[in-house]
Amino acid sequence: GSPRRLLLISNSTLHGGGYLGHCQQHIQSFLGQKVKRVLFIPYALHDRDAYARTAREKFESLGYGLDSIHESCDPVEAVRKSEAIFIGGGNTFRLLKALYDNSLIHEIRKRVLEDGIPYMGSSAGTNVATVSINTTNDMPIVYPPSLQALGLVPFNINPHYLDPDIKRTHMGETREERIRQYHEEPNTPPVLGLREGTMLLVEGDKATLQGVTGARLFLRGKKPTEHEPGTDFSFLLTDSNALNL
Question: Is the pTM of this model over 0.90?
Answer without folding.
Answer: yes
